[in-house]
């Protein structure tokens, strides 16, 4: 498949063909569409004057785009007009998400953070909450086009916002056409667009490979041989050698980011020392370090599973490298930083959300001494990629990349809701939770849209920012 105009806006270099071959992709069943307000895409102050040959790469304001995400899928009123773009980053600690309230009257149809949360005693109630909120299909500037035409043809008249919103709704309503094994010609390009990621050149990827073993190489080799070992589709398509190369290249990239930050510290320290006393210089040094931004991440165990779907879906290692590096450094950098604080915050949020949407199940697990830290760590870290089958993981990732990877927290609660009866009836719930049932992406999405409507705004703001 040739480089598409919208995907081509992300980079002008040709992909690097390695091991993968593309396969035919019949249609899959369309899922039930829900509320159609999307994460705010690119902000272009001069979007109308954009040159379409080729179009420029989207540059998304991360915090605003995250807040204006799939949380509005649970809104009680339909969305009737295009989103308004703001050149300002929206404060992430607002008590009410601007997207979830968009298109509503002053009377909110769902629970406020200071109101008694609804009690949900069965997954059918959650599914019904999503079903009865089916809105009128919104009218987008590109709504008459298929997802393939939006990606291949790019935005019409420079309307990047309309093209991205239409593409997101198409993914929710129709899904990305793929074969039974999950293979699709265009999935990786849709992911790159949603992740706002230009494709790395083959030369850049090769230069990282030719640097040899990184400091994390031993850890990588200890992980790769056991990546999705029970999945025959992955083992047939992706070699361990390609997974090692990708992870080692990412490890070099993270190492370079650390070195760049380290080299910028001495001048800040010397400047602070000249201005302050000894006590003041320590404080000034701490401030100087904080001004450099958060510490870059490093390779952690579990990244092999998180990288696996990219290699399976991509048509080259260079494409998989670009998408994977963007995910871990921009969408969930706290998952690979320090003591993986972002993962632990996500686990705490799983417990909080479950306590709101299903108090009985939450108390049952608490009484058994089962917190999310015990059973959900792999699911949070890998965005549910640890739960087979792989084709369903790809479909769930279509949803997460379109609306925000932070919704993985809600997707995990949705899986708990789907196995609720089994957990409550088992004398040993820890055995049930040790291995989640096979993933059903459409069911998880439907339940997620119902659960979203029950989450207070302040808790949702924590979900949005937990991985940053």
TrEMBL record:
Extent of Polar residues compositional bias: 33-51
Domain Rab-GAP TBC intervals: 181-404
GO cellular component: mitotic spindle pole body
Gene Ontology MF annotations: GTPase activator activity
Record-linked Gene3D superfamilies: putative rabgap domain of human tbc1 domain family member 14 like domains (1.10.8.270), Ypt/Rab-GAP domain of gyp1p, domain 3 (1.10.472.80)
Pfam assignment, any one: RabGAP-TBC
GO biological process, one term: negative regulation of septation initiation signaling
Xref: InterPro entries: Rab-GAP-TBC_dom (IPR000195), Rab-GAP_TBC_sf (IPR035969)
Tree of life domain: Eukaryota
Renumbered residue ranges of the record's region Disordered: 26-60, 75-119, 258-294
PANTHER family linked: MITOTIC CHECK POINT PROTEIN BUB2 (PTHR22957:SF263), TBC1 DOMAIN FAMILY MEMBER GTPASE-ACTIVATING PROTEIN (PTHR22957)
Name of protein: Mitotic check point protein
Naturally occurring in which organism (per UniProt): Drechmeria coniospora (Nematophagous fungus)
């Amino acid at each position: 498949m040739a480089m598409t105009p919208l995907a081509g806006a992300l980079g002008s270099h040709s992909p690097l063909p390695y091991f993968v071959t593309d396969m035919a992709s019949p249609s899959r069943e369309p899922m039930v569409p829900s509320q159609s307000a999307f994460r705010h895409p690119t902000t272009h102050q001069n979007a109308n004057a954009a040159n379409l040959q080729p179009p420029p790469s989207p540059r998304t304001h991360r915090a605003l785009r995250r807040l204006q995400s799939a949380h509005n899928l649970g809104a009680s009123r339909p969305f009737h007009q295009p989103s308004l773009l703001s050149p300002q980053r929206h404060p992430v600690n607002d008590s009410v998400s601007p997207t979830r309230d968009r298109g509503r009257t002053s009377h909110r149809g769902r629970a406020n953070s200071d109101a008694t949360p609804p009690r949900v005693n069965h997954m059918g109630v959650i599914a019904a909450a999503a079903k009865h909120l089916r809105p009128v299909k919104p009218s987008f500037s590109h709504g008459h086009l298929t997802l393939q035409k939006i990606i291949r043809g790019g935005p019409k008249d420079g309307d990047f916002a309309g093209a991205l919103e239409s593409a997101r709704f198409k993914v929710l309503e129709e899904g990305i056409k793929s074969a039974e094994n999950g293979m699709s010609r265009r999935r990786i390009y849709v992911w790159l667009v949603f992740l706002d990621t230009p494709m790395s050149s083959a030369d850049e990827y090769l230069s990282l490979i030719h640097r040899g073993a990184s400091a994390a190489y031993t850890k990588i080799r200890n992980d790769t041989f056991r990546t999705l070992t029970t999945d025959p589709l992955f083992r047939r398509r992706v070699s361990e050698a390609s997974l090692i190369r990708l992870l080692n290249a990412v490890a070099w990239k993270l190492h370079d980011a650390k070195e760049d930050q380290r080299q910028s510290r001495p001048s800040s320290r010397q400047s602070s020392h000249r201005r302050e006393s000894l006590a003041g210089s320590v404080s000034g040094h701490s401030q100087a370090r904080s001004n450099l931004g958060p510490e870059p991440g490093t390779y952690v165990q579990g990244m092999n599973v998180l990288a696996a779907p990219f290699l399976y879906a991509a048509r080259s290692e260079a494409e998989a490298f670009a998408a994977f590096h963007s995910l871990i450094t921009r969408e969930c950098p706290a998952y690979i930083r320090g003591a993986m604080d972002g993962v632990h915050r996500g686990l705490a949020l799983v417990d909080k959300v479950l306590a709101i949407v299903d108090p009985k199940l939450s108390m049952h697990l608490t009484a058994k001494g089962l917190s999310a830290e015990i059973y959900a760590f792999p699911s949070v870290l890998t965005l549910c990629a640890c739960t087979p089958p792989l084709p369903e993981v790809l479909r769930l990732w279509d949803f997460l990349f379109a609306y925000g990877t932070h919704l993985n927290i809600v997707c995990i609660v949705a899986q708990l809701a789907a196995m609720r009866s089994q957990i409550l009836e088992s004398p040993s719930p820890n055995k049930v939770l040790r291995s989640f049932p096979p993933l059903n992406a459409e069911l998880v999405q439907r339940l997620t849209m119902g659960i979203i409507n029950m989450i207070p705004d302040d808790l949702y703001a924590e979900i949005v920012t937990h991985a940053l």
